[in-house]
Amino acid sequence: MGLLSKKDANLILDPLADNNPITIQVLGICSALAITAELKASIVMAVSVLFVLGIGNVVISLMRNIIPSKIRIIVQLVVVAALVIIVDQVLKAYAYELSKTLSVFVGLIITNCIIMGRFEAFALGNGPWRSFLDGIGNAAGYGLILIIVGFFRELLGSGTLLGFKVLGDPIEKTGLYAIGYENNGFMLLSPMALIVVGIIIWIQRSRNKALIED
Amino acid sequence: MENRTDKNSYTIIFAIAMVLIVGSLLAFTAASLKPTISENERMEKQQNILYAMGVNDNDEGSATFISTDKVAGEFSKYIKKQIVIENGSATENDQAYLIDVKKEQTKAKSGGTRSLPLFIGEKDGKTFYIAPIRGKGLWDAIWAYVAMDENMVVQGAYFDHKGETPGLGANIKQRFFMDDFIGEHLLDESGNFAGITVAKGNADPKNLDKTDNEVDAIAGATITGDGVTAMIRKDLKLYWPYFKTLKK
């Protein structure tokens, strides 16, 4: 990473593992439950958050010296809501198909606590470039977990990946289904997202004891 | 540590300025994009209607509309007549597809007369009657365009939703769900309106039984499925009297 100093690189790399927003900071759980029933939705959400958090962090960072501390949370909310709604409107006008896919996610993005959390914890105290890296890093860490959870929920719940029937056809009884395999419908329900996230947290902490709090 | 941005006067001025700037920015965006957006919505309606009667670019597995540059031409080619049914009498109206079903439902609720748009299309010598319907899913509105023949047997359907859960309720707009409706009867054997129930455990996952008034539900999307059932029972039933007049 010749472009970035070691400190800057850590802004991106830390949230991917040892300071992951979902598994370590336990933020953004609501959206992780809501939209990980299939892999495609997880990917769309991951990319959207990457975009909003990257830009939002820069905007908040540029405004950090003029935001009144008493109403800073409101200001942050207004900035992220305005940003998301403008993008939504522009997509509706010029990329209608795409906007229909994303419309469900708009509300989830605005209320995503990772976005507010990074504004509050990082962008308010750091310059735009570092805030941008921090935004990208945290969104990537969030997206990574979303994609892992989405992968297992779609594979075990529906027997598909991105809509392709990778395990065979459950109705025609081909592939794995021919030998008696059944989809686990429970994987499609939100509690299983929590259990999958729990398993990821377990694996992560058993490999790195430093992460375990007393 | 008192500084400039902690003062009440500064806070109030900042808040006012922020609201003004963000408000006018949003208003400006919304107003300047509105014509393009409503044009997109108009074309989408035409695409939905044509999709239901089988005029689409579907391949093996995905649901694909005909492209937006062709839609206006195809719409006037296939849709022979647009009618509006009010109090049992049908009048022709070539702007019927622009009728907002949501507004008509509100009108009916407050005691007014609901105008029911119906689009009559012809393809390969067959006549299709396409009705728009609207209801509630789990989170927000769901709606559909259902194409029927004169015996109220479904010939095709397009479902859509505003905010159902991706991967679960949102799957009502997937082919595997919509295609189940094709060939399904809306009337029971004695000719009364029965609707189509999105049923769990109807033991017919391939949907071979077309006269059971049931299609297979989506796992994990019970409430959206129930919404579809209710929407069909409530809204499509309003068209039943019109279909009875066709048989005479």
Automatic annotation (TrEMBL), chain A:
Kindly state a single biological-process term from the GO annotations of this entry: sodium ion transport
Mind telling me which residue stretches traverse the membrane in this protein? 41-62, 74-95, 101-119, 131-152, 185-203
UniProt xrefs under InterPro entries: NqrD, NqrDE/RnfAE
Gene Ontology CC, one term: endomembrane system
User: What is the role of the protein in this entry?
Assistant: NQR complex catalyzes the reduction of ubiquinone-1 to ubiquinol by two successive reactions, coupled with the transport of Na(+) ions from the cytoplasm to the periplasm. NqrA to NqrE are probably involved in the second step, the conversion of ubisemiquinone to ubiquinol.
Which cellular compartments is it found in? Cell membrane; Endomembrane system
Source domain of life is Bacteria
Coiled coil start-end: none
Q: Indicate how the chain sits in the lipid bilayer.
A: Multi-pass membrane protein
User: Entry's NCBIfam families?
Assistant: nqrD, PRK09292.1
**Keywords for the protein's UniProt record, in alphabetical order:** Cell inner membrane, Cell membrane, Ion transport, Membrane, NAD, Sodium, Sodium transport, Translocase, Transmembrane, Transmembrane helix, Transport, Ubiquinone
State the encoding gene.
nqrD
Q: What is this protein called?
A: Na(+)-translocating NADH-quinone reductase subunit D
Q: What class of enzyme is it?
A: translocase
Q: How does it assemble?
A: Composed of six subunits; NqrA, NqrB, NqrC, NqrD, NqrE and NqrF.
Q: What is its main location?
A: membrane
Q: Which reaction(s) are listed as its catalytic activity?
A: a ubiquinone + n Na(+)(in) + NADH + H(+) = a ubiquinol + n Na(+)(out) + NAD(+)
Automatic annotation (TrEMBL), chain B:
Q: Which residue range or ranges hold the FMN-binding domain?
A: 137-239
Instruction: Give GO cellular component annotations, separated by semicolons.
Output: plasma membrane
Q: What range does the record give for the signal peptide?
A: none
UniProt keyword annotations, A-Z:
Cell inner membrane, Cell membrane, Flavoprotein, FMN, Ion transport, Membrane, NAD, Phosphoprotein, Sodium, Sodium transport, Translocase, Transmembrane, Transmembrane helix, Transport, Ubiquinone
Q: Where are its TM segments located?
A: 12-33
Where is this protein primarily located? membrane
Q: A biological process (GO) annotation for this entry?
A: sodium ion transport
Quaternary structure and interacting proteins, as annotated: Composed of six subunits; NqrA, NqrB, NqrC, NqrD, NqrE and NqrF.
Protein known as: Na(+)-translocating NADH-quinone reductase subunit C
Q: What is the lineage of its organism?
A: Bacteria, Pseudomonadati, Bacteroidota, Flavobacteriia, Flavobacteriales
Identify the gene encoding this protein.
Answer: nqrC
